[in-house]
Amino acid sequence: MTADAYESDLPRPGGLPQRARRAAATVLGRRRPMVDAGIEEYAQTHSSPQSPALAAVAADTRRLSDRPFMMSDAPQAHLLATLVHLGRARNVLEIGTFTGYSALAMASALPEGGRITTCEIDTGNAAIAAGHFAASPHADRIDLRVGPALPTVRNLPGPFDLVFIDADKTGYVRYFEAVLPKLSPHGVIAVDNTLHSGLVPQDPEERVMVRALHEFNTLLRHDRRVEQVMLTVRDGITLIRLTS
Ligand SMILES: C[S@@+](CC[C@H](N)C(=O)[O-])C[C@H]1O[C@@H](n2cnc3c(N)ncnc32)[C@H](O)[C@@H]1O
């Protein structure tokens, strides 16, 4: 795709709710949800509350990290746990651990004998996550792999019932291609931030990210191997399954 075609295919500034962006930017750092801030708040209030264990991990993350906005929020944690529950997932893969919040949310919904492998490249983040995992009653279900995710994923046999892709956005196509052959027939790939920033970048760093996300979204749209739905939860989560 040429740069011009890319630009013309993206939403225009002002095409998405500015008020929601401003309100959310205050709370979430760079994350901007797609729906009105009041609706977002109502949805949060009327979803189950965050567990005390996850609330403690979130508080610890805000204390220890200068990028706490990278962490999933409570509704997203419930969504991930519900996907584990719904798919009766036993083997879960996460790409992008950060401080372990989403991994712990998914681990809490696993059945006896279930397992989550979670990949993190940053040793500082991995050390914080390891502490959170060790303090959890679900520590034995979590396998933390420190290093770049791609070689790790290529060495894992699968099949995976649920994959959560939530690391560097420019790697999404490679992660997707690496995990797709290892997805179980009823498996789901959940991809985070697919509507990041309303796909309207605010600075050069976001521009690279948004371009990569748009290219990923476009590839997916034309990929006959899979069917997908893009949810406007937070800043977009795409759920992908094999074509039936
Ligand atoms: C958005 S955060 C993950 C948030 C986490 N899933 C959660 O919801 O709490 C992305 C993480 O991916 C990690 N990361 C970036 N590139 C990576 C790579 N190539 N392999 C593994 N992890 C990577 C970053 O260090 C960061 O901690």
What does it look like?
The structure is a single chain. By secondary structure, this protein is an alpha/beta fold. It has one domain (3-242): Rossmann fold (3-Layer(aba) Sandwich). The chain has ten helices and seven strands. It has helices at 3-9, 18-28, 37-45, 52-64, 74-86, 101-109, 123-134, 149-155, 172-179, 204-221; strands at residues 91-95, 115-120, 142-146, 160-165, 183-192, 226-231, 237-242. A seven-stranded mixed sheet has the order 3-2-1-4-5-7-6, sandwiched between helices. The longest helix is centred in the last third of the chain and has 18 residues, at 204-221. The two termini are 29 Å apart. S-adenosylmethionine binds next to helix 6 and strand 2.
CATH topology: Rossmann fold
Coarse structural class? alpha/beta
Radius of gyration: 17 Å
Could you name the CATH class? Alpha Beta
Strand order in the sheet with the most strands: 3-2-1-4-5-7-6
Which hetero compounds are present in the coordinates? S-adenosylmethionine
Helix fraction bin: 40-55%
Q: How many distinct helices?
A: 10
Strand residue percentage: 15-25%
Largest sheet geometry: 7 strands, mixed
Q: Uncertain runs with pLDDT below 50, 5 residues or more?
A: 1-8, 11-29
CATH architectural type: 3-Layer(aba) Sandwich
Mean pLDDT across the residues is 88
The number of domains is 1
Keywords: Methyltransferase, S-adenosyl-L-methionine, Transferase
Region (Disordered): 1-20
Organism: Kineosporia mesophila
Protein name: Class I SAM-dependent methyltransferase
